[in-house]
Amino acid sequence: MTEHDTLVFLLSLAAMLASARVLGELARWLGMPLVVGEIAAGILLGPTVLGRVAPDARAWLFPTGAPQAMLGGYTTVAVVLLLVAVGVEVDLGLLRRRGRSAALTGFLGIALPFASGAALGFLLPASDLVDPSRRTTFALFLGVALSISALPVIAKTLLDLGLFKTDVGLLVMAAATIDDLAGWIGLSLLLGPVRGAGVDLVAFGRTVALAAAFTAVLLLAGRRLIDGALARVERVAVAASGRVLSAVILLALIGAAVTQAIGLHAIFGGFVVGLTVGESSRITERTRAAIEDFVFNVFAPVFFASIGLRVDFAAAFDPRLVVLVFALATLPKLVGCTVGARIGGMKWRQATAVGFGMNARGAIGILLADLAHEAGLLTDQIFVALVVMALATSLVSGPAMKRLLYAEEPDEDVVTLLRRGAFVSELHAHTPSEAIAELVRALGSLLTGMKRLARDAALERELVAATGLGDEVAIPHAAVEGLDKPLLALGRSTHGIDFDAPDGQPARIVFLLLIPPKEYEEEVRILASIARATYDVRARADLVAAIGLEEVTRVLSESARRTRESLRPTREGRPVRERR
Fold first, then answer.
1. Which of 73, 115, 261, 353 has the most C-beta neighbours closer than 10 Å?
2. How many domains does the structure of the chain reveal?
């Protein structure tokens, strides 16, 4: 490797990162996922545009040899860290608590698109395959590619729509977790034989056994070890966040090396490390955000830009394959997830919204396609079709969910409920459980015979997912058996209460919302109304300073009106915390 090779590598890396960040921000401004702009950057720098306009410049900036190898090493690390970020998002406890509904939605959301993808793989003509002798492996991969969901994209969509903490949002997240677990395990097992000369069943069985042992040891014993290590890291508060990040990356690289050594793709090690880190009691929402910010702002843009460098998208665009892949990815996924959510107890409208939420493939679908393309399993045409499908499903998901779940919400929703509910000017509580109990008591006769039930339901719901929204606001909420109409209580805390918000700020404004069972649409509508009423800094400051219920309701009403007017042109697609 010469000094010139190092120079070219640094310039190519800088060009990819700069263009990906600029076009990613442009895509976000237009209400689209960042990944759209990042891939567009690669298309501009790759054979599709720069290769046609200035082929010599492209050949100099992205030559073969050492610079290409160094760039490949960077993107390999990026892929591993991306899977760590995905694994951190997976809440295994949520799967245990959501049970039947999540299992039905997740299983049907996998089974139908997997069957359609495998059928497409077996029925496509040999001319669409890289190697017809590997048709079975190709068909199985298409099944996985069409059945997996993009957990980060789904999480971002739910956050943007204010649905992340709702029962609908939690069901979608739990079912998507099942899809992700099955999809990444299946892909890792498939890529092992693809990279070799053939399939040795004995060696394959040994790899599966070693992978199972690695996963079990890390998830069972590893979590305790990580908790202990992070506890020591946190003793030095000034350096705690940086040390946690270093520890997570170190674990990811070691885990990736282990799975690569036993015959699985390195991504599986990164994913399992992410699962383990995510299960640690020491990992807060703020820590998760720090991990994601690092990965998604430094490594992910370069990786997604590199996808555009590998294929001439204009030459490889085949309308027949694009339509086939999109239809067979979307329709079975929608049907499977909708039917699963309906059997689980949701109404058809909410169940259909779950189906659209699960349909987003986003960056995960693109990453999966890239791995298979790099392994020599996909033609350029199939690869482009999968990338287009992943982007299209992500763009459709949010608007479809919004249309299905959001009716026109009147501004006075919060005000009406609060007048009928309770207001606590100063909470004495210091913990979320104490705050919930205090607000339940404040509702008094409105919960005759149901106070304990309401308190326990809200506490259990808090265990499923913390309800701190950030910006010093928390909305603990739950469905209560026997309740016939929604109830709302508002409490203020001078000292603040830690509801594990993403920004790490304690909540000074705490709403407690209780709703009748399975009133998902009502829950979404009221939570959106509360979020709108506490959207801007001025409103939150006025709420903290307000004297008496009348002034509080006036502040909420005026804030809701201002927010509706300011967000009406750009509400859709406005990110709360940027994800793919």
1. 353
2. 3
